[in-house]
Amino acid sequence: MKKFKWAALGLFALGVWGLTPVRAQEALAQEPAPPSGSEEQLTTEHAECSFFGATRDRFLPRINNRAESIPGRLTRQFMASAMHLNTTARQKPFAEATGVGGNLIDRYIRADLEAHNITPADKTTDYEFIRRVTLDLTGRIPTVSRVQMFVQSGDQNKRAALIDELLAKPEWTDKWTMYFGDLYKNTASAVQVRIQPEGRNAFYKYLHDSLANNKPYNKMAAEMIGAQGNNSFDQTNGQLNYNVLGVVGGGPTQDIFDSQAANVADQFLGIAHVNCLLCHSGRGHLDSLSLWGGQTTRAQAWGLAAFLSHTWTRSINTAQDPNNPNARYNYFSLDKYTTDYSLNTTTGNRPARQPIGSVKTITPAYLFGGQTPDKGEDYRIALARYVTGDFQFARATVNYMWAAFFGRGLVDPPDQFDPARLDPDKPPPAPWTLQPSNPRLLNALAQSFIDSGYDLKALQRLIVSSDAYQLSSEYNGDWSPEYEQYFARHFVRRLMGEEIHDSIVTAINTLPSYTVNGFTNASTVYGVDSPGFGKISFAMQAPDVVNMPDNGGAVSQFLDVFLRGNRDDQPRKTEGSILQALGLMNDPFVQNRIHATGTGPTATFLAKQLATYTTDDALVTSLFLNVLSRNPTRQEKLDAELMLGAGGAAARKTNAEDLLWTLFNKVDFVFNY
Q1: Could you list the residue range(s) of the whole structural domain that residue 98 is in?
Q2: Judgement on whether residues 315 and 399 belong to the same structural domain of the protein
Q3: Is the pTM of this model over 0.90?
Q4: For the chain (length 673 residues), average pLDDT per consecutive 10?
Q5: Which residue among 35, 65, 440, 656 sits deepest, i.e. has the most Cβ atoms within 10 Å of its Cβ?
Q6: If you write DSSP's letter for every residue of 240-285 in order, what string do you get?
C-alpha cells in the first residue's frame, strides 16, 4: 500500500519512536554514582542473589529515561509538539497549597515538592485525563462518544464521576484479573510445574470473580494461602492453584515448601529476598542489598517455610481416577505430612539442610514477628492470618498499586522491601538511608487501605483522584533526574500488548472473536461465553499470556512482540523495539483493519466513516478522536486534509486508509501519557 510522503510520515507516524523511548522533555545528563547504602546501589551491586530475589520488571510499566538515543530525542520532540497543544488551558495542581485539605496523597506529595523546591508539572487537560485513566483502569482507550461527553461537560465533579464509572465496568475486572494473573504467575505450564489449562482457568475464574465482587484483598490473600481441597481443577475452588503454582520438581519436599513460602513473601509482602535467605543466611550475602536481610538467618527463613510443611501436592492421572477419563488433576491434600520442616536433605534445588546442633526439625515461626500457630490450628490458616494482619501486607499492596499507576513504586522495585529501612521515626544507621521515597505517604496509604477494609477499588480511586496522578507528562522547565522520586510529573509508558490489541479493536468498533478453550470439550463444561476461557473479543480477557488469545496464531505472535512475557522466566516488559514498530506498520492485525470495504451492514469501520463524513475536515477529526481520543492540532488537520485531497476524489479512499494506518502508528497511540 502506498503510504504518506516521508515528510508527512515524519510528522504523523511512529517511524522513529525508537529503541529507547523517553518520558518527556529534556535529555537527561548522566547521573553521578549512587551513594553507599542508596537504593540504586543496593539493588544492583550483589550478583550472587541475582536469581533468588532478583529485581523484577513485571510490575513496572515504565520507560527508562537514563539514556536517550537519537530516535528517542526525535520522539521526545514530536511528543512535546504534538500531544498537548489542542486542548483547554492547563490548571495548576495542588490548588490548596497553603491549606491542609485535599486528597491524602496530595498532602504528602505537595509537602515533598515544596521541601525540595520543585515546581510540579501542570495538570492534565480533559483529553489527556480521560485517555490516561481509561487505559490505566480498564486497559482500553475511551470511545469517541465518551470523550466528547466528558470534554464538553461543565460539571466540576466530572473526573470523579468518570473514575467511579470506570471502576464499575466489567473491563476493569478484565484488566486487573490480568494484572494479578501476572503477579501470581498464573499459567498452564511453567518450567517447574504444569497446572494444566483446567487449573489455570479455575484460578483465573477465582481471581475474576473475586475482583468482580470487590472481595476485600486481605480475604483473597487468606483464601489463597490457606486454600483447602483436593481438586485444583474445581471451578468453585480455584484458589487451590495458588499453592500448586509454587510446586518445584527435582528435589525433596522442602524445596516445595521453600518455593511456596518465597511466593507468599514476595507477592503479599513485597520481600523477594526471602527467596535468597532460604538458600543461605544473609550475612556475607545480603549485607549490601538489605539491612534486614544481612541480619537474618536461613533458620529464621525456614520458620516461614515450616508453615507449609504439612501440605501435600501431587498430580494424579487417568488410571488413578477411573471415574473421569479426562482427569489430569493436581491433587492437593492436607493430611499427608505430620512432621514439621525436617533438616535432612543433601540434594535438590537448594543447598543441603542439615541439623543445627541437636535441632533436626524446624517448627513454624512467622519471620516478621515470631508468631506461631495456635494449638491444633492448621499451619497455612495461621500463616494467612499472620500475613494479612501484618502492616507490611498493606504497605506492599499499596506499593504494587502505586507502581502500576505511576511507573515506579514508593519503594522501587516494588518487591525489594527492606523491613529495617521503612520507619521514618527510626531511620537506619549511616550509610543506610530510608528506603521509601516518601515513607510517611507509604504508611498513610497503607493505613487508609486497612481502614477501607482492604478495598482495591477504593485504593485505586484514591490514587487516580489525586492531583499527583493527574499531573501532565509534559514538564515546563528544566527537568532533573532527581525529581523522579518526588513524582513531579507523570511518567509516560508504552502500552502493553493486550492494551494495544484492545485499543485497536475499540477504535474501529469491530470486535474479533477468539476461542481460547485450551483443553478438550471446554465449551460443554464451562460454556462458550464464560469470561476468559470461552469466546472472547479482547486480549485482556485471556486467562494466560502463552499462546493466547488464538492458540499461538498470528495475533498471539503480534502480542508477543510487545514483550508480554510468559509468567515464568520471562517477565512482562515495556521497552520499545524495531520489531514493535514493524509489527504496527505491517502486521495483518493492523493492516486488515484499515481498509474501507463493503457497504451497509457489511461495511468496515473506515467505509462507514467515509460514508458518514463526506468532508475532509469532519473525517480527519473523527479519525483522530477514534484512534487518539483527541482532536487534531491545527497543523495536523491541515496536513491530513492536504493528503486526503491528493489525487482527487478517486484517491480519497486510499488516502483515508493511509491516514488511519498512520494514526495507529503514531507515538501517542502507542504510549499512555
Answers
A1: 30-53+89-122+391-484
A2: no
A3: no
A4: 40 36 29 37 37 34 33 34 47 58 86 95 96 98 97 96 97 97 94 87 93 97 94 89 92 95 98 97 95 98 97 71 60 76 96 96 97 95 98 98 97 97 96 97 98 98 97 92 94 96 95 66 40 78 90 91 95 93 94 94 95 96 97 94 89 95 95 95
A5: 656
A6: HHHHHTT---SS-HHHHHHHHHHHHHHHHH-BTHHHHHTTS-STTT
